[in-house]
Amino acid sequence: MDLFEAIEKRASVRAFVPAEVSEDDLLKIADAGRRAPSGGNRQPLQFIIVREAETLKSLARVQACFASASAAIGIIADPAVSRWWLEDAAAAAENMLLAIQSLGYASVWVEGTLLKEEDFARQVLGVPAEKRFVILLPVGHAPQETPQADRKPLADVLWREKYGRK
Amino acid sequence: MDAFEALTTRRSIRHFTSEPVPRDQIEKIIDAGRMAASACNEQPWEFVVVTDAAVRAQLAELSIHGKFIAESPVCVVVFSKTWDYFLEDCCAATQNLLVAARALGLGTCWVAGDKKPTAPQIGSLLGVPEGFRLVSLIALGHVDTTSRLRNPPKRALDEVLHWEKF
Question: How many CB pairs under 8 A join A and B?
């Protein structure tokens, strides 16, 4: 899929229909996350791919969407490695969302509800306490095509040379 | 360009030619940023596109690690309104800008903005009202292929990827 098509089609999907996501595709998605930029190239991130149904069911405590997802990819950051760990995690998440979209799957960025259940999620996936478990992305098949949420027009967010100048 | 090619071949570019970037390409790149994921679809971002050489020279100075902003024909400066997920959302948008530029054959380098002591000065230089936060500065332009490209190694996928458990 063309990159701009993936950018325009990416939408948040929170319920999935059962269908396989291949190991090869999951590796491609994680690879897109790994290749996102990181501050000072410190690369403070690790990724966990979850496919076991029992584990996905447990993760539904974080957000219901994981119960119907075919897989999930967690982003684990080490704040001891870089002060830009959150920026880096966000860049990797966006890269993986675009990768998921371009392979024909759907996802949603899960963060707020994960942070509330971070200790639980760490326990489920065996993540050490000193690491941050910041973002978890389901990977699944959308039941139908979902349009991207309404966007502010370009003219409302783009300024030329100075803020407020069109 | 195919999405995976853009997502996996983007690299930081710090040497640019003086050739200007056409306005429609700049708009296409910012449009990609506008379509990034944001928590609760908040879209907290504002993009200031700076081409003026004198202003870029000042940004190069103030950004500390972004000396090459004086040389790149464009600098996109990303600000956010105050919001719980301002950093994540605007970093996702920044990442979309980088991969969109790559897909158009242009080069970029992400310079961190948040946590920079000079962030308030950069905001006032660009006329940004109080209450907005600087997130990133993106040098943008045509790649100077006569310069030696740094290609710092990324950790291998199997070093950063875990299956089922950390």
Answer: 194
> Distance from B76 to chain A by nearest Cα, in Å?
9
What does the domain layout of chain B look like in residue ranges? 3-143
Cβ pair A46:B160 closer than 8 A: yes
Q: Which residues of B touch A43 (CB under 8 A)?
A: 154-155, 160
Burial of B158 (0-12, 13-18, 19+ CB in 10 A): exposed
Bridge-partner residues for A45, per DSSP? A77
Residues ≥6 apart with Cβ < 8 Å to B160: A34, A43, A45, A46, A47
Cβ distance A72 to A64 under 8 Å? no
pTM for the full predicted model: 0.97
Which CATH number is correct for B3-143, 3.90.1170.40, 3.40.50.720, 3.40.50.2300, 3.40.109.10?
Answer: 3.40.109.10
Q: How far is B61 from chain A (nearest CA, A)?
A: 17
Q: Which residues make Cβ contacts (< 8 Å) with residue B68, sequence separation at least 6?
A: B14, B15, B16, B60, B109, B139
Segment B113-141, tens digit of pLDDT: 999 999 999 999 999 999 999 999 999 99
Q: Give tens-digit pLDDT for B69-97.
A: 999 999 999 999 999 999 999 999 999 99
Q: What is the ipTM of this complex?
A: 0.97
